Amino acid sequence: MASPSQQLPPGWAAQWDANNQRYLFIETATGHSQWEVPAQGPAAPIDARSTSPPSHTAHTKRRQYASGQTQAYYGTGDGFVDPQYGSAMPPAGPQQGAQLFTPGLAAENQFAAQQQAQGQQPPYYQPQGEPEYINAPGYGQQPAYQQQQQLAGVTDQFAQMGIAGGQKPFSLYTTNLLTAPPDPRELLRPPPEIRLPPNACITTNPLANADPSYQRSTINIVPTTSALLNKSKIPWAIVITPYRSIKEGDQPVPLVTDTVIARCRRCRTYINPFVQFIDGGNRWRCSLCSMSNEVPQMFDWDQERNQPGDRWARAELNHSVVEFVAPTEYMVRPPQPTVYAFLIDVSHAAVSTGMVATACRTLLESLDRLPNEDGRTKVAIIAFDVALYFFSMPPGTTDSSMLVVSDLEDVFLPKPTDLLVNLKEMRASIEALLGRLSEMFQESHTVGSAAGPAMQAGFKLISPMGGKLMVLSSSLPSLGPGALKNREDPKILGTAKESNLLQPASAFYKTFAIDCSRAQVSVDMFLFSSTYQDVATLACLPHYTSGQTYFYPAFNAAKSEDALKFAHEFGEVLAMPIMLEAVMRVRASKGLRMSSFHGNFFVRSTDLLAMPAVPLDQSYAIEIQIEDTLTAPFVVLQTAILHSTCTGERRIRVITLALPTTSNLSEVYASADQVAIATLLANKAVERSLSHKLEDARDAVTNKMVEILTTYKSSMTAAGSGASAQLAICENMKMLPVLLLGLLKNVGLRQSAQIPPDLRAYAQALLTSLPSQLLVPYIHPTFYSLHDMPPEAGTVGEHGVILPPPLPPTSEHLKRHGLFLIEDGQTIFLWVGRDAVPQLVMDVFDLSSYEQLRGGKTTLPLLDNPFSQRVNAVIAKTREMRRGPYYPHLYVVKEDGEPPLRLWALSCLVQDRADVMPSYQQFINQLKDKVNGSSYS
Ligand SMILES: [Zn+2]
């Protein structure tokens, strides 16, 4: 039957009657209702306000969104972001008249507007300034220039074939790595633009295609064949951060509340901005499989206002990221409540270092921050050392009683009720318990850890519902199931056997993880040991249950910095909203297949990823294969995460990404996203280091770079397969070698016989879960010169504190009289040159001379002088600008101070030579030799 979106006479509303499966028409003034469509009165829209396309507001919003987005995502101040980045958006399209959906008409208007918008959009990748391009006119590289012209000819021809329509081809700018040093500002650029053919998208909304902070692809134009993709040597994957945090200035994800969910009946794709409406708007053609589907009857009905709605205003047709409230058929049970079981180590090591006191205090202070909008959140506290201590909190009292279980082999719950209690109802009991827990075990001299049995107990307690196990542990689990042995052996560090230490030592952790995943239980690990704790094995649980590992080696709360860091990060994790009982699946256009999955989850069936709890800002990489030749001008990838919110609602978050296709290799290169490639390769390298050797993992990274460079040279430059005095790569991949060099030098992969296995394992956990925004500094640290920073740096600008311009991470920039900041998102170093003038030392540290300054973990004083305030502002901004719960420690490093600390700081300057690892220049030369000497063609 006809949808009531067609115009009704003034004063009439239509209401879907589910019992009769038809519309009831109501005269709103009189309340009279009838089944017949009321006679058409004067042709006027019912309510111009609700039906006019949101073109104006949408563009205004976009303006704010884009700059906020760029700002928050790249985490920069307005100090060094090219203002052009934020403003590279299409101008507002022509104003459309207020109208209801008229088949054909509205869409045509929108297409026209889109074409116009595309035509005026400046390319993202316009090179800044006048860099030297090998193939730029006048450079003297005649053969290369000619080739470029030929390529341009090919693309013109391609465009004339009508495949690309008016789509602008990507221009390939080739640069010579030998003479073009990497500029860290390049890393702040957005990925190459996605240039869809006209008419690909049914909306002009600039938010219709994926925001890279949610989903980005290693290539932004897809080769039509697997052979062409293989030829490029660029691995194709999407990097997904589906549950990205919303920072100030970010737009929240639009929510579709009417439970009208249009999905393709063949491939189950959710309706999105890249479908086509056909049959007078009554059907839609799936953008993945081309199936023609019926438009649901209520699709054009505004349930909130109870009147016809504007189809074109629906969020799922305008936004790449959207969330649906799911109806009951998406539930196998009512949405679970948010449940936390805190498993707190109370052995001597845990109590004496102040971990227990800090944890209890933070938890106590964070009770209001725990997600609990629906009042259903449940909490349990279990303490453990060589036994398990349960706390029963019966209703009607604020007292709790402790129940001790010392049978560790066959763990049981000592009481069927009152161990897991409602946070709101039992708030007083929980507060009282947290207030005295640390004291209760103050005198403990117990050594040993029944962490495994504690986790089994926590599992027994929460598995009927699902939820989070938060394990806070200060030593190696030594008792009961899951007990581990100290396998740290300095002799095998740096040898082929080292990777054994990075694999789980006991099958318990894998099988327990699978049990957890099945029962919707996710594990977070907070680890504090001063000695070997086997992080590699323990991190297995968060890895397979979509949790996270946090590591505070040699934690000591007597150092206020240690207490502050842990309290901050634990507090952030507690306050974090989480997606519960989630499953994620990526669907893609016909001819594409998800081939491998990287990140913290468990692959339940071929492509269904089970995630008992999705934390904010965790990243996943999924590789894609081209199985059949792609004939469509663009392909669509759609990630859907079915989950329960921590407010008890079942929802589906859908992220849609459309990418154009090409048969032109140069376009593939020109569209490559070096940051996404580095993110994928970090994941793959860590996995390879576990299945093979660390050395193999490093070789694989280098070989991938060599393959790309070799193919690029032979197919995109005049040198072909012959030797070349240059090392050519396209401008948009110019930072890839330095990113990969940084990856090779990261603690997780670095060639060294000195890295404790726990530190390595923790670094690997970060490399495989950090979103690109945090991963980039983690492998390519940020380096600022502070003593001579520009006057505006460290002051507050339009977008918060202005940061100094970043320097390339090499000690060539260190000055003996200077003050520098080096940071990787996890640790901040304040480097003080040995000839620092007394005034600088006085201004920053309140000390009369460099000699009085002591290196190490510190809290910088905030002094009554502008320089101190600016330095403090830069540090504060560095700590808060990125997503994620991390609160980096600050270390003061004296140029002539303790060697281990100096070396640690210097190891962040990844362009320098370090031990056996090459400098950037050496690395580039090695790459060049391999490219010239290799047999690829
Ligand atoms: Zn379909």
Automatic annotation (TrEMBL):
Its GO CC terms are:
COPII vesicle coat; endoplasmic reticulum exit site; endoplasmic reticulum membrane; Golgi membrane
Question: According to its UniProt record, where is this protein mainly located?
Answer: cytoplasm
Question: GO biological process: any one?
Answer: COPII-coated vesicle cargo loading
Q: Tell me where on the tree of life, at the top rank, the source sits.
A: Eukaryota
Q: Which Pfam families match?
A: Gelsolin (PF00626), Sec23_BS (PF08033), Sec23_helical (PF04815), Sec23_trunk (PF04811), WW (PF00397), zf-Sec23_Sec24 (PF04810)
Q: Where is the WW domain?
A: 6-40
Q: What are the GO MF terms of this UniProt record?
A: SNARE binding; zinc ion binding
Name the family.
Belongs to the SEC23/SEC24 family. SEC24 subfamily.
The identity of this protein, by name, is Protein transporter SEC24
Q: Which organism is it from?
A: Rickenella mellea
Classification of source organism: Eukaryota, Fungi, Dikarya, Basidiomycota, Agaricomycotina
